[in-house]
Amino acid sequence: MIKIDNSLISAISEKAQKSDRKRMNYNFHKAAYDSLQRLINAIEPYSYIQPHKHENPDKREIFFILKGRMAVVEFDDHGNILDHIILDAEKGNFAVEIPERTWHTIISLEKNSVAYEFKDGPYNADEDKNFATWAPKEGDSNSSAYIENLLENLQLKIQTF
After folding, report:
1. What DSSP string runs through 28-79?
2. Residues 139, 113: Cα–Cα separation, whole Å
3. What is the spatial distance between Cα 106 and Cα 48, in angstroms, rounded to a whole number?
4. What span, in angstroms and rounded, lies between the C-alpha atoms of 37 and 28?
5. The overall pTM is greater than 0.85
6. How far, CA to CA in Å, does 149 sit from each of 17, 78, 103, 115?
7. Tens digits of per-residue pLDDT, 80-98?
8. CB 55 within 8 A of CB 132
């Protein structure tokens, strides 16, 4: 039995806070070749996830919010925002399924935000994501400004309490 409780969520959140990338995964799948990848994804505010899509091979991705709030943003091929959802269990927005070949990113809107993620496998780092050329790369000095621009366009703010 795999248990997801406050103790596990707190431990992963603490690791995310200490991580340079401000996020941390905790994998439940046994190996990269598993056909269903299952993991806890703890993401802190201002962790930058470059917009990407899962194509060739095509993969679906599902996020269930466990704690906190996250914005999931969908884009067109030119980087224009098409849609978004604020995952927030208290407001009744529990999950989102992102179809294959769909540009998207995730932005943590408050400290200690955690989602349970499902994605088609297997996982191969070399072909898992197609990154958007219209957005900064991870580690780029413009990534914080890019997040701020997205938040402004969506009329959202990161809570810093």
Report:
1. -SSSTT-SEEEEEEEE-TT-----EE-TTTT--EEEEEEES-EEEEEE-TTS
2. 21
3. 8
4. 8
5. yes
6. 23, 15, 17, 23
7. 999 999 999 999 999 999 9
8. no
Alpha-carbon gap, residue 95 to 147, rounded angstroms: 21
- Is residue 99 reached through a cis peptide bond, with omega within 30 degrees of 0 on the bond before it? no
What percent of the chain is helix, strand and coil (3-state, nearest 5)? Answer: 15, 35, 45
What fold characterizes domain 6-154?
Jelly Rolls (2.60.120)
> Which are the contacts of 3, defined by CB distance < 8 A and separation ≥ 6?
none
Give 70's strand partners: 87, 108
Do the beta carbons of residue 66 and residue 114 sit within 8 Å?
yes
Q: What is the pLDDT of residues 55-69, one digit of tens each?
A: 999 999 999 999 999
Tokens, residue 150: 């997205």
Residues contacting 159, CB < 8 A, separation 6+: 45, 69, 109, 110, 111
Domain boundaries, given as residue ranges, for the chain: 6-154
DSSP, collapsed to helix, strand or coil, labels residue 154 as helix
114 strand-pairing partners = 42, 67
Q: What value, to the nearest 5°, has the Cα angle with vertex 90 and ends 49 and 36?
A: 50
